[in-house]
Write a structure and sequence with these properties.
By secondary structure, the protein is α+β, with helices and mostly antiparallel strands. It has one domain: 2-Layer Sandwich (Alpha-Beta Plaits), CATH 3.30.70.100. It has helices spanning 14-30, 62-70, 72-84; strands at 3-11, 34-39, 53-59, 85-93.
Length: 99
Amino acid sequence: MAAYFIAQYTVKDPALYAEYQKGAGPTIAASGGELVVFDVGAETIEGSPPGQQTVILKFEDTAAAKKWYDSPEYQAVVGKRLEATDGFAIISQSMNIGG
């Protein structure tokens, strides 16, 4: 079942975030991931999200998403995103009705 890495945040340091993007992009493709959404102005209709920037990546399953996230290649750059942004990231399955 497909799994999605979903991140939503505010970019505090655009230069550092640009460095992150350059390093992260190749790791996604190399892990079989697909960029589904990259929106710097997502519209909030409920609640109080940390920011307007939304990124959604699609992977074959949760194991593939976690393998990408935990990979040495991605771990080498993820710190830049964490430092450059305020927000959160989750992994969600496409249809997880069992918990």
